[in-house]
Amino acid sequence: MDKIHVLFVGESWFIQTTETKGVDYFTTYRYEECAYIMKDLFEAGGIDFTHIPSHRVEFDFPESSEELRKYDIVMFSDVGANTFLLPTKTFIHGNPSVNKLALVRDYVADGGSFCMIGGYLTFMGFEGKGRYKRTPIEEIMPVEFYESDDRAELPEGFSPDIVAPNHPVFDGIDEQIPNMLGYNSTNLKADSTLLAEHNGDPIIAVATYGKGRTMAYTCDCAPHWAPLTLCNWKYYGRLWQNIAHWLANK
């Protein structure tokens, strides 16, 4: 079987901390990313994994169909639409540039696969700053996005209900998915297939677009919505490897 190649975008951030001690203060900065969680579980299943951190999208994300077709699957996780739509060339210098979201849409229509993973900057996200509503990405997704902040914060935790246990995504998994702590609320499109839900909201949904396949995974893949109990679940790697095989149709 041919190796599956995943292009994973996001799950990275910079943190600025200011400490005040009496009349004195100082500021520190650090960089963090959680993409290693996905890298480890995909590579454990023999799946090739390429990561583009959010701040490298302008420089490293493909700008042609030929480049994008090197990958079987494109995944966005906690990275907003503006990061793709406002490169320096356009936002600062006022020059046209490649619409990378439209490029992904055309890539899927031509047989590629796409998965959006939930978070504060995917779907619509925190205060609507994910901003994927009415973009080419919403067009290809199995779900419709809300107009504004779509977060469902559930600090008490919930275990999603699997409604399609015989779907290949759940092959070899004989346990309920452990607790999640939140997700992005969406509406299932009429021609999509619901795989898992909570209180009527899609948690995992799939669809086809043109020749390709798409998935909405509305919880995060890493903390905080995906707590360590979920990330360390014995079937977590199996779940994502199954997702990759289904999306790539391999």
Structure in a nutshell:
This protein is α/β, with parallel strands linked by helices and 250 residues long. Helix content is 24%, strand content 32%.
**Largest sheet properties:** 8 strands, mixed
Which fold name corresponds to the CATH topology?
Answer: Rossmann fold
Calculate the terminal CA-CA distance, rounded to whole Å.
8 Å
Q: Report the uncertain regions.
A: none
CATH architecture: 3-Layer(aba) Sandwich
Question: What does this protein look like?
Answer:
With 250 residues, the protein is of the alpha/beta class. It has a single domain (5-248), classed as Rossmann fold. It contains nine helices and 14 strands. The chain has helices at 35-44, 57-60, 65-68, 81-85, 88-91, 100-109, 136-140, 228-231, 236-248, and strands at 5-10, 12-21, 24-33, 48-52, 73-77, 113-117, 143-144, 151-158, 161-162, 180-184, 187-188, 193-198, 201-209, 212-217. The strands form four sheets. Strands 4-1-5-6-14-13-12-9 form an eight-stranded mixed sheet. A hairpin with a 2-residue loop joins β12 (193-198) and β13. The model has no long low-confidence stretch (mean pLDDT 97).
